[in-house]
Amino acid sequence: MIYAVAVCAALLAAAAVLTLVRIERGPSMLDRTIALDTFTATLVGAVALEAAWHRRTDTLPILVVIAMVGFVGSVTIARFAAVEPEEERRIKTREEAAAEDAARRLAEEAEERALERTAELDAADEATGDATIGHTDTVLSSGEDDAADHAAAQDETAPDEGEAR
Amino acid sequence: MTWDNVLDVLAAVCLLAGAFLSFAAGVGVLRFPDLLARMHAATKPQVLGLILVLLGLELRLRTWDAFLVVVLVTLFQMLTAPVSAHMVGRAGYRTGKVRTDLLVLDELTSDLDEARTLEHETELAHLAAERAAHAGDDVVRPSHPDTVPQEDPEP
């Protein structure tokens, strides 16, 4: 019995390694899903083999659970499978990830600057509004100025963001 | 040679066969060229391999409790494996991961083409009928520019 169990264990281990290699390589998510399903089946085999070797029954519920739940992952991934462009199938290199991070940071900073500038302009407008309160004419015109200033601020920030992106 | 020995040997044979199917699936999943071929390889340990391993387990345990659990596991696996295989195969076909040059027979593509042609023809027939109905009208209908016959005189 021990030789049979050893050979079985070796075969299952080899199968697990091979499926893991496919999970790592898999050109698409669906290939990885299939390899993962095979890996689950191998796992069930391994648990059953161990139970058979030690004649124990307390690990059998694990088999039931794996058999019940094992398919959820592949169904979910298959449901959301989409056409992947060739470029997105590989893992990004370190430099590309760093460049993307830097670009995102620049964009965030530009946005913050724009927000600060808008807040400053608003504060300035409010100050002028307070000074000329009581005059309907000027209040109205200051309101128009406000809108114009907003537009100007957005115009100023727009090219910044464009560059950052 | 006692009964126990015979059952143990049978269990070992079943376990070996199941483990071999798992190994074969691992090799197939790694080496086969496209999604459908890999699915073909991957289903071997999911049903037959699992049944063999569980049969070996049952032959080794020899209790009714274990038999119940083994039947339950087999049942669940036979219910869930086709579901995931169907979903994965469908998603693979829809997202163009099936290599049609490796297929010997591709009924789905030809059926889809046929259905598309049929739909197109129905649409054309519908258009022709509308055109015939509006042939006498002088008025150009702006809401249906496609259905307006071109030889209609402009108002």
Could you walk me through the main structural features you see in this protein, from its secondary elements to its overall organization?
The complex is a heterodimer of chains A (165) and B (155). Chain A is an all-alpha fold and 165 residues long. Chain A is 83% helix and 0% strand. Chain A has five helices and no strands. Chain A starts with a helix and ends with a helix. The model of chain A is unreliable at 138-144 and 156-165 (pLDDT under 50). Chain B folds into two domains: 3-98; 105-135. Chain B contains four helices and no strands. Chain B starts with a helix and ends in a 22-residue tail after the last helix. The model of chain B has no long low-confidence stretch (mean pLDDT 85). The interface between A and B is large, with 51 and 54 residues.
Low-pLDDT segments of chain B: none
Instruction: Tell me the number of structural domains of chain B.
Output: 2
Q: What would the average pLDDT of chain B be, to the nearest integer?
A: 85
Please report which band the strand proportion of chain B falls in: under 5%, 5-15%, 15-25%, 25-35%, 35-45% or over 45%: under 5%
Helix content of chain B: over 70%
Global geometry of chain A: elongated
Secondary-structure element order of chain A, N to C: HHHHH
CATH class of the largest domain in chain A: Mainly Alpha
The CATH topology of the largest domain in chain A: Helix Hairpins
What is the CATH architecture annotation of the largest domain in chain A?
Orthogonal Bundle
Q: In terms of quaternary structure, what is this?
A: heterodimer
Low-confidence stretches of chain A are 138-144, 156-165
